Amino acid sequence: MSDPNPTLKALLLRVPKSWPTTQAVYPHLPEEPFEKLTATSAHVLLHLSKQTGKLAGLFEPMLHGRAEVTGFAHGEVSRQVAYTIIDVLRLAALAGVTAEDIAEEIAQWEREQNVHSS
């Protein structure tokens, strides 16, 4: 059983192992390293576009007073958020971004936002 509350560092290690970029999974994957990286990142970005569209489809009706994120929709939102996080972590792993890098960027953005919000 996997950790129900893994750290970002643990997820960054786990995600590439669970969703490997191999010829078995992607038969037309180029073998040359740069072309493989390019094809893989493009594929992951397409997945992110799909997830963003699915999330928009779940939330957008609320602007028209026609839906709430409850019941079945809540489960679908949870699923699409998880898929989005997985693909963001796949991109981070492809780029060599560490949990520490991400934490520092978040802290920097918080500092910048606090400066601008005063």
Structure, explained:
By secondary structure, the protein is mainly alpha-helical. It has one domain: Helix Hairpins, CATH 1.10.287. About 75% of the residues lie in helices and about 0% in strands. It is built from 4 helices and no strands. Helix 2 packs antiparallel against helix 3. The longest helix is centred in the middle third of the chain and has 31 residues. It is globular. The N and C termini lie far apart (about 45 Å).
Structure, briefly:
The chain is mostly helical and 118 residues long. The chain has one domain (8-117): Helix Hairpins (Orthogonal Bundle). It has four helices and no strands.
Q: Using the alpha-carbon principal axes, give the shape.
A: globular
Rg of Cα set: 17 Å
Counting DSSP H or I runs of 4 or more residues, the number of helices is 4
Biggest sheet layout: none
**Which CATH class is shown?**
Mainly Alpha
Low-confidence stretches: none
The total number of structural domains is 1
The end-to-end span amounts to: 46 Å
| Overall strand count | 0
User: According to CATH, what is the topology?
Assistant: Helix Hairpins
Estimated share of beta-strand residues: under 5%
Which second-level CATH architecture applies? Orthogonal Bundle
The ordered H/E elements are HHHH
Mean pLDDT: 87
Helix content: over 70%
Derived structural class: mainly alpha
